[in-house]
């Protein structure tokens, strides 16, 4: 990604409302009810992935650690 693309990406983020705190809260609520969900295949994988990373992030700009 060149500098102009990075500037555009950051401008796009700045123009949009901060959705990460909402998404993080919803992920926690989903995980709280995980035992009551019927999941299989990719759904189970996504829930595992969410559980692994959700508390390792504070913003949507952070990449994998």
At a glance:
With 65 residues, the chain is mostly helical. 58% of the residues lie in helices and 0% in strands.
Q: Explain this structure to me?
A:
The protein is mainly α. It has three helices and no strands. The protein has helices at residues 3-15, 20-32, 42-53.
Q: How many whole angstroms does the radius of gyration measure?
A: 15 Å
Structural class: mainly alpha
Q: Which descriptor suits the 3D outline?
A: elongated
Strand residue percentage? under 5%
What is the distance, rounded to the nearest whole angstrom, between the alpha carbons of the first and last residues? 20 Å
Succession of helices and strands: HHH
Low-confidence blocks of residues: none
The amount of helix comes to 55-70%
How many individual β-strands?
0
The overall pLDDT average reads 85
The largest sheet, given as strand count, sense and whether it forms a barrel, is: none
Number of helices: 3
Task: Describe the structure using short key phrases.
elongated; 3 helices; 65 residues
Task: Describe how the helices and strands are arranged.
Elements: H1 3-15, H2 20-32, H3 42-53
């Amino acid at each position: 990604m060149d500098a102009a693309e990075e500037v555009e990406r950051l401008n796009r983020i700045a123009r949009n409302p901060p959705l990460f705190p909402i998404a993080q809260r919803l992920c926690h609520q989903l995980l709280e009810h995980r035992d009551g969900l019927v999941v299989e295949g990719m759904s189970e994988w996504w829930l595992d992935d969410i559980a692994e990373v959700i508390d390792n992030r504070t913003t949507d700009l952070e990449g994998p650690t």
